[in-house]
Amino acid sequence: MLISAINKEMRLLCRDLHGVAVLFMMPVLFMFIMSAALSDDNQINQQAKMVLLGQQNDDFNQQFSQVLKQQHFLITLDNIDELKKYQRQLQQNQIDLLIVNVNQQDTPLADIQPLQLWINPRFDPARLLAIKGALQRYYIQQRITDYLQDNHIQLANNQQEQIKQIEQQVNQQLIQKFNHITYYLSSEVWQDIYLNAQGEQIHKPNSVQHSVPAWLIFGMFFILIPLSNVMTMERQTNTITRLAMAQASAWQLIMAKFIPYFMINQCQFMGMVGLGYFVLPLLDMPTFSLVGSFRDYLLLSSCISLAALGYGLLISVIARTTEQAVVLGGGGIIIMAAIGGIMVPTYIMPEMMQMLAHFSPMGWALIAFQDLLLNQYSLAQIQFYLYLLMTFGLVCLMIAVFIYQYQLKTQVRF
């Protein structure tokens, strides 16, 4: 009976190719879109359109803008008298930032005024903070370098050979010290070292490794859509009556649906991993590669699938129509994704929302996936989240079996 029921579900799946296609196309599109959007994460600062205004023909501003251009910043230099013109452009979103430097090259360090930064209120605060940090670094570096140029001593009576030698030695030492200061200002302050759970240094995870797990989990939970379509069709075509007459148990019928869709979930997982590893590099995007044992990822994928299918089957037996399934199931998935860190990272959430994230199955799956992939945890170190996913899935399955058994007895029509 179980084999026959599985064959029936496979035939129904073949008739609902659109629903099955959504399960593969949606996470694939998410992966490509997010990978493309985040592939230049190291260049995000430079993409802002900026204008630097300063005193006309001031050498410092020209040198400062040239340094920024060498760092691939999109910056334009103009006269400070054009302030009103560029303020209008800022209001019209033609430029992102307007920098005004009222200082000149010969302004003493003690008299230097702060740079004015005119900002459009719609500009992202996190991006603004990164840009300000980069601009501050290059501005201070250029200001100190300019200050140290031609900074030497000249002794009286330097025509005498001994005094001239002392003057030359002191100036050489000053030049050497100034060169050291300039080199220090131009050097990197931070050396990023990533440490995994085993205490080993690892390479910096790329943007794809950060984003793909979330959307892969999101796509796996959307297995509910074709699943609910099939069960709604059973009610509309009175298939449930024939199943009841065949004296098939609710457990067998639920498992007959579980097994094919479980296989689809695993195909989703392996397909996404394969696309990330083989296709993304061909499109000049970061590679999505798994770190550690592939067996651990398969077990994690199985637990996620159990939770997703348990939830999907529960909603499918509760919902009377496809519309109800979409509202209940789709809405529930979006809520779990929102509070679980799929759509918005949990670290930027308020404390109350971070506490709610601990109750989201998608949040459990995401934490386990990131710990396995980014922190390189062992299977034993993520087993708590695996148990949570399995418990959630099994509880949902048991409730679904109980409800479906009741429906087989009460919804039979002759």
UniProtKB/TrEMBL annotation:
Source organism superkingdom: Bacteria
Protein known as: ABC transporter
Coiled-coil stretches: 149-176
Compartment annotation: Cell membrane
Membrane-spanning intervals of the chain: 20-38, 212-231, 269-285, 297-319, 325-348, 385-404
The keyword Membrane belongs to this UniProt entry's keyword annotation: yes
Signal sequence range: none
Pfam families found in the cross-reference section: ABC2_membrane_3 (PF12698)
A Gene Ontology cellular-component term: plasma membrane
Keyword entries, A-Z: Cell membrane, Coiled coil, Membrane, Transmembrane, Transmembrane helix
Protein's membrane topology: Multi-pass membrane protein
